[in-house]
Write a structure and sequence with these properties.
The chain has 262 residues and is α+β, with helices and mostly antiparallel strands. The chain has one domain (2-261). 17% of the residues lie in helices and 51% in strands. It contains 2 helices and 14 strands; from the N terminus they run H-H-E-E-E-E-E-E-E-E-E-E-E-E-E-E. The protein has helices at 2-19, 39-64, and strands spanning 72-74, 78-82, 86-94, 102-112, 116-128, 131-144, 149-161, 167-179, 188-199, 202-215, 223-230, 233-241, 247-251, 257-261. Strands 1-2-3-4-5-6-7-8-9-10-11-12-13-14 form a 14-stranded antiparallel sheet. A hairpin with a 3-residue loop joins strand 2 and strand 3 (86-94). Helix 1 (2-19) runs antiparallel to helix 2 (39-64). The protein is globular. The chain starts with a helix and ends with a strand. It comes from Flagellimonas spongiicola. This is Lipoprotein.
Length: 262
Amino acid sequence: MEKHFNTLRALFLFGLTLITFQSCSEDAIPSGEQEALTTAELQTILTTDEIAGTADNAIAELFANNGVTGKASTDECYTAEYSDTGFVATFNNCVLNGTDNVNGTVTVTYQVGNETAAYTATYEDFYVGNIKINGTRNYALSSDLEQGNIAFTVTSEMTVEMEDGEVISESGTKTFGFTFGEDLSTSTFSLSGNWQVEVDGNTYIVSTPNELTGSLGCEYLSSGTMNISKNGLAIVVDFGDGECDDAATLTYPDGTVEEITL
């Protein structure tokens, strides 16, 4: 069982790392009078994952503790009650890996197989700093240790209330993958999926017709395409053909092409 918990923890930390590769440029504004997708909006599309990543890390901390069925665990800042199928944890001003204080309750149910694991996390008024999370995230994790591959798929149905009262909702599925190379420079990661974000009266629908990929030897995503629809405005983001550089291109319906710096 300990092997599976360690694998889960590694996958979570990997998921948090992926966020650092997803940055945008203020140059992403097409010519003409059509509605544009701004840098701030692109960042908003990714914000829920950043916040949820901290919540995921809180769960990883408890998985790593390898709780025993029916046993209650008490730390300086949280309590957890374990059962046959998971645990219920309540956090009280926990600081995890230098994050803002974490408060609130999360209920987790899980199943663990030989090289797979699946679980559901339900957040109830779960706070990361002054940001509140409610909703459910379903996770399916798998690994092929002989091939050096690990992957996890996250299906979310959640809302995030920001400190200023703005509410962001996200639904859909993302799959993160990682393949170990001979060293960090030859190890690769990927992101694919279909998800939707709603905020400030706008709806953004995201898909990845060609999975986004990169390597730990490069600071930027280096290949793949992402389709983003903002209230019906379709934009294609192309991250390149595998070369390590900080460039990507946006293509708008009228044919306008913009190069941005990541």
